[in-house]
Each structure stands twice: as structure tokens, then as C-alpha cells.
Amino acid sequence: MFNMEPEVLERFTWYMREQSALTVMFHARVAEQMGLSATDEKCLDLAMRADGPLTAGRIADLSGLSTGAVTGVIDRLERAGYVRRVRDPHDRRKVLVEVTVGDVDKFGEPFEKARDSMVEVLGHFDEDELQVIERYLKLQTETFRKRVIDT
Amino acid sequence: MFNMEPEVLERFTWYMREQSALTVMFHARVAEQMGLSATDEKCLDLAMRADGPLTAGRIADLSGLSTGAVTGVIDRLERAGYVRRVRDPHDRRKVLVEVTVGDVDKFGEPFEKARDSMVEVLGHFDEDELQVIERYLKLQTETFRKRVIDT
DNA sequence: ACAAAATGTCTTAGCGGCTAAGATGTTCAA
DNA sequence: TTGAACATCTTAGCCGCTAAGACATTTTGT
Prior knowledge:
The structure is a homodimer.
Chain A: H1 6-34, H2 38-49, E1 54-55, H3 56-63, H4 67-79, E2 83-87, E3 95-99, H5 109-122, H6 127-149
Antiparallel strand pairs in A: 1-3, 2-3
Helix pairs in contact in A: 1-2, 2-4, 3-4
The first copy, chain A, binds a DNA duplex through residues 37, 39, 55-57, 60, 65-73, 91-95.
């Protein structure tokens, strides 16, 4: 591998830090717009990004909340119409949390703005460059999850 | 501009969403490792990323917290040794929040892991590709801030 | 088949942080 | 100089979180 100067690394670090802070603010905006707390929005996001419906306990694990707290989260999400409790027919102790809203992108102004913003940015790159960027994003998310989150 | 297929857009949306969720988890890890709440860590991050010291009121604005809450945040950060209260000599009503820790990267394991992870990822690209990625990151953060956060 | 242990969720008590309103101290303007 | 504006702190009340245990269901061991 060629020699990467420290300044380059420093600039990249800055971008990551900046993007990181922007992301936290973005989540706060989305939550506010949906009439949810940051916690509730985070749990709803988990439920939406999962393959199938999650159990209450799995949401507790993924979110880091206690099971008691998750009960409250699901109560509020259910009351607001975002999810529905369904008892698992194969194990009636379990509660499956089913998301009852369709298209993710319908989730208010912040999401639309974020999408528009992304389209605008990507418009500044040609096809070859987009392939580089996609390779980067894919590798970045995978590596970050493996090395930082999944400890 | 050339024609961008919907699937490409969808894949990029997925990466952004994934990265977004990972970032939120990352902040939770960092906060936990520092013995701080998510709120306190967010405020400390604001103070660290600012040019000079911020006032308590400015932190309230930027964080979206009430001034009363910020008083508590600064109390806890000060007690934990991360910041120091300094009265502004030019306007003694104001309280400047001075960060009293040096290198940002000393901030615990998660930060180091994140940095290592970034280095590993960037190692998979040559110099030309890195320039594309940097251009993308710069444009992305700027555009996102302008279009989504600063409404 | 039955009892005991394990599992998954919900309930409750107690704690701590948040908001809103107002108190306190400082600066600005007439 | 005096009243208004400003910046922060204090306080009361509320709400969500954790920890512990209750309840219902499933699994295990005999």
C-alpha cells in the first residue's frame, strides 16, 4: 500500500466526526417530526430495518434497553399507530412487533430532504466514480460494524 | 447528467440508513465508555468540535436542550473532569465551557477502533480513488448540513 | 406425565434528567 | 440612574429508565 500522509487521515477523521454529529441531529429531527422520543424512534428504526418482525426481547438486546423499558416503547409506538403487537403462534410467551406502516420514505420531511440531498450529491459524480463511492460505503459499513459495534 | 437507475439509489439509501444506525450505536458506546449519558456526550462533542469555547446558552441552542438542562450537563461534565466553567471576562453573565482534555483520540477504545477501522477501509483504495471519496465526503457533509439540518 | 427450571414479557418502586417558570446577577439603553 | 434585556441557575413536577420480581408459557429431567 502507498504512503498515506497524516493530514489526509486527519481530514477523513474530521469528515467522519462531522457526519457522525449530523447523523445524531438528523435522528433527533426525524423523531421530533414523528412525535416520538429519540429512544422510540431508534427502536422503530430497528424494527423497520430487520428482516422479519422482532420480538420485544430482541429489541431490548439491540437497543440496550431493559425489557421493562421496551414494554413502554412498544406501548407508545402501538398507541401512535406505528406498530402492532402479535403473539408468536409457535411460542406464545413471545411478542412479535410488526411494523404497520408501508413505505419508509413516507416518514416525513426529514427523510425526503435526506434523500434529495443524497441525489444532489451523487449527481456530481460519473458512473466510475459512483462505483468507487459505493465500494467505499459498502466496505465502510461492513468494517465499522465488525470492528467497532460487534466488538 | 447520466441516467441513474432506481436500484442504485436504493442501494445507496440502504448504506446511508445502515451507517446512520451504526453511528447512533457508536455514540452510545463512546458515552458508556466515558461514563456519560448520551446527552452529556453529545454536548461534550459539540464543545470539542467548536472553534473556541462555547457558552452554556450556545450549547442549549445547538443541543436543543433547555438552559436548565444544560446547567446539569455542565455540572456533570465538570465533575467528571472533562470541562471547566470560566466566566467570560467581557460579559460576566456568560459562562464559557472550556474542554480540559487534550487529544480527542485519547477518548477511549471506541474512538481508536473507529480510527483503525477507517484506516483499514481506506487502505483498499488507491490515491485517485481516495480523492473521489474525499470529494464525496466533503460534499455529502456540506450538502446534508445545508439541506437537512439548517433547514 | 409431571414437577422444576428456564424463558419471555409485563408490572412496579424508586431514581434521575428534562421542561417550564421564575430567581439572580450582569449589561445595555434612554 | 433606572428599567429592560440578557445569560445562567434554581426549583417543582413530570416522564422514562433500571432493577427486581410477578406472571404466563415452554423446556428439561426423571
